[in-house]
Specification:
The protein is of the alpha/beta class. It is built from eleven helices and 13 strands.
């Protein structure tokens, strides 16, 4: 499977440590680990964090072909505080270099010729007008490519109009149960049970599939009219940063493989749980470890 991911690349700054992240970057890294070909479109500054980001991408087997260097902007950072349950609170510093990602005509032609299966994007990056224009340019050029939207609402980094635009652009969507409630509230819709929300929004926005994560309770998945709920895997949580992005990559993996909904949901839960049990957004893991998880 071939994936083009466009979004933020930044450093998650914890008390005492820093880990490379960014929701769409994490998705790209996890998709690469799951064996897919991935090009990531973004930008870093010409600073120490930017150089380290490039090195880290190499270690993750992500080729920085479409990672632009922006001399007058700092590489993105996010301050992260974890509560006792490992749940993060983010403070996002903007503007940042990733807001100024760009593709030349030659770059775009190369991506079109590559014929990707998926174009992946999220909300945070699209808040910047230049990023939004670039994504629109990509969607128009990659005419036959399926589009995946990972909602990831972050405080002060979304608007109702933007979320609606991105939902209309996508064919497959992933969000969490709190975001499902937020979206209904900000659009002035009555609050629906998750199954009804998925079915109604899939019909309205012409989605092929929607996955809704439910934290420790696992996930729910609507796929072409079929509904499944899959319980989570109990793990000792270190931090949940990146676990939803890992879930998203595993969700796409299952969709691309043509698995039935139950298997897709179970596999995505496994990958998300494994990442939550380790420090950082893109820790090392293996498929053997995923399949070895149990609910005992």
């Amino acid at each position: 499977m071939r994936i083009v991911a466009i979004g933020e690349i930044l450093w998650d700054v914890f008390p005492g440590s820093e880990h490379l992240g960014g929701a769409v970057f994490n998705l790209a890294a996890h998709a690469r680990r799951l064996g897919h070909e991935v090009f990531f479109v973004s930008a870093v500054g010409e600073d120490e964090r930017g150089h380290k980001a490039r090195e880290r991408m190499g270690h993750l087997n992500l080729f920085p072909r479409f990672l632009r260097c922006v001399p007058d902007q700092a590489t993105g950072i996010v301050s992260v505080r974890l509560d006792e349950a490992g749940q993060p609170d983010f403070t996002i510093q903007r503007p940042a270099a990733y807001d100024f990602a760009a593709l030349s005509d030659e770059d775009l032609a190369e991506l079109v010729a590559w014929r990707p299966d998926w174009l992946c994007f999220g909300t945070l990056h699209q808040m910047h007008p230049q990023a939004r224009r670039l994504t629109q340019r990509l969607t128009e050029a990659l005419e036959g490519t399926r589009r995946f939207y990972d909602v990831n609402l972050r405080k002060h980094n979304y608007t109702p109009d933007l979320v609606v635009q991105l939902m209309r652009l996508a064919q497959v969507v992933k969000l969490n149960q709190d975001e499902a409630q937020q979206i209904q509230q900000m659009l002035g819709r009555p609050r629906l049970p998750l199954r009804d929300f998925a079915a109604r929004f899939a019909e309205e926005f012409d989605w092929e599939a929607v996955a809704i994560t439910r934290g420790a309770d696992g996930c729910a998945l609507w796929l072409r009219g079929a509904w499944t709920e899959s319980p989570g895997y109990p793990v000792r949580v270190v931090d949940t940063v990146g676990s939803g992005d890992a879930f998203a990559a595993a969700f796409l993996h299952g969709l691309g493989a043509g698995w039935p909904p139950e298997r897709i949901a179970d596999f995505a839960n496994r990958v998300g749980a494994l990442v939550a049990a380790r420090a950082g957004a893109v820790p090392e893991f293996s498929l053997e470890e995923c399949w070895a998880l149990n609910r005992a």
